[in-house]
From TrEMBL:
Keywords: GTPase activation, Phosphoprotein. GO terms for molecular function: GTPase activator activity. This is RHG20 protein. InterPro entries: ARHGAP20-like_RhoGAP, Rho_GTPase_activation_prot, RhoGAP_dom. GO terms for biological process: regulation of Rho protein signal transduction; signal transduction. Residues 1-169 form the Rho-GAP domain. It holds the Pfam family RhoGAP. It comes from Bucco capensis (collared puffbird).
Length: 180
């Protein structure tokens, strides 16, 4: 999925914003869940993006770990960018390795999309609005007004992660997918 999103996302206007066909997404999700072979290259890239966001939303406790929720929310209150980056790197060290690997690839994709935002209309802010709710949620349900404030903070964090992914994850993030 990420390889396809890396290839097609940068040239697709509204990637992650426009939903894939709901019926197709449901059918493909059922196939994937059953272990059947699925050729996503034959599907709309919007379907792939929707399936990937659904996958992220279904990671138990979220990919950024709901247990670290309060710490993630506080990152953007740190002083300068360097302090924020160091805080993020410390939090990443507390995540399971599989989560960090997936995050590196995800932010490699988001970085590639952001670099072509003139073409796809998806700058770091727009990407964050679309993807942040799939990356972290509070460990317990919250009232709507608190949830709205939480979503804004997490979107701000995801925007920062996207804009600074090379400093956070390393410069090699731009070549994780090789020459596709």
């Amino acid at each position: 999925m990420l390889s396809l999103l890396y290839q097609e996302g940068p040239t697709t206007e509204g990637i992650f914003r426009c939903p894939g066909n709901a019926k197709t997404c449901k059918e493909l999700k059922e196939k994937l869940d059953s272990g059947a072979e699925v050729d996503l290259a034959c599907e709309s890239i919007f379907v792939t993006a929707s399936l990937f966001k659904d996958f992220l939303r279904n990671i138990p406790g979220s990919i950024l770990s709901s247990q670290l929720c309060d710490k993630w929310v506080c990152v953007m209150e740190q002083g300068n960018d360097e302090e924020k980056i160091k805080s993020i790197q410390r939090l990443l060290e507390q995540l399971p390795r599989a989560n960090v690997v997936l995050l590196r690839y995800l932010f490699g994709v988001l970085h590639g999309i952001e670099m072509r935002s003139e073409e796809n209309r998806m700058n770091a802010f727009n990407l964050a609005i679309c993807i942040a709710p799939s990356l972290l949620w509070p460990p317990v349900s919250t009232p709507p007004d608190t949830e709205s404030e939480f979503t804004k903070k997490i979107s701000s964090l995801v925007q920062f992660l996207t804009e600074n992914c090379c400093r956070i994850f390393g410069e090699e993030i731009t070549s994780l997918f090789g020459e596709i």
